[in-house]
């Protein structure tokens, strides 16, 4: 980054390469990735416990077309996920964000499997929020 002089003269108690604000699921995956890449990483959290809304949801995540559902024989695909999001989310989320989710979500699950002790399970029979929607199960 270019030094624009902002913060000049300020002494910080701690300087890091990667600062994560919030210890929820997304923040923790960001921190794990940065640490894996060799960055000095710090997570700050305002709550007395980590987890954020991910913990409140019971740790349930929807990552379409991941290795668990493929191994379980579910006929999931990127196209099916796109159809489901189009019918449930529509244009409320930019298409490039939806596309990144579909493309990189499965890679994120594999990264966690390969580089952490985190283990996900596919809850067979646990339906989508809108199973009747195009692309739903």
Explain the overall architecture.
39% of the residues lie in helices and 6% in strands. It has 137 residues and is mainly alpha-helical. The chain folds into two domains: 13-59, no CATH class; 61-137, no CATH class. A two-stranded parallel ribbon has the order 1-2. Helix 1 links the parallel strand 1 and strand 2 (41-44). Helix 4 (78-88) crosses helix 5 (95-115). The protein is elongated and about 60 Å long. The mean pLDDT is 91.
Number of helices: 5
Our count of domains comes out at 2
Strand arrangement within the widest β-sheet reads 1-2
Q: Which ranges are low-confidence, i.e. pLDDT below 50, for 5 or more consecutive residues?
A: none
How do the helices and strands follow one another from N- to C-terminus?
EHEHHHH
Cα-to-Cα separation, first versus last residue: 45 Å
Q: Cα-atom Rg, whole angstroms?
A: 18 Å
The largest pleated sheet is described as: 2 strands, parallel
**Approximately what portion of the residues adopt beta-strand conformation?**
5-15%
Mean pLDDT: 91
Count the beta strands.
2
Task: Chart the SSEs and their pairings.
Blueprint (H helix, E strand, L loop, with lengths): L17 E4 L3 H12 L4 E4 L7 H5 L10 H5 L6 H11 L6 H21 L22
């Amino acid at each position: 980054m270019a030094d624009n002089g902002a913060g000049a003269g300020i002494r910080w108690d701690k300087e890091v390469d990667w600062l994560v604000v919030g210890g929820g699921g997304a923040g923790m995956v960001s921190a794990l990735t940065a640490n894996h890449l060799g960055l000095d990483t710090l997570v700050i959290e305002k709550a007395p416990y980590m987890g954020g809304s991910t913990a409140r949801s019971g740790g349930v995540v929807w990552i379409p077309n991941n290795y668990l559902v493929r191994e379980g024989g579910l006929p999931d695909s990127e196209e099916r996920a796109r159809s489901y999001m189009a019918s449930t989310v529509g244009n409320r989320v930019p298409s490039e964000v939806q596309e990144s989710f579909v493309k990189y979500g499965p890679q994120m699950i594999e990264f966690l499997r390969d580089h952490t002790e985190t283990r996900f399970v596919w809850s067979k029979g646990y339906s989508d929020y809108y199973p009747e929607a195009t692309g739903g199960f």
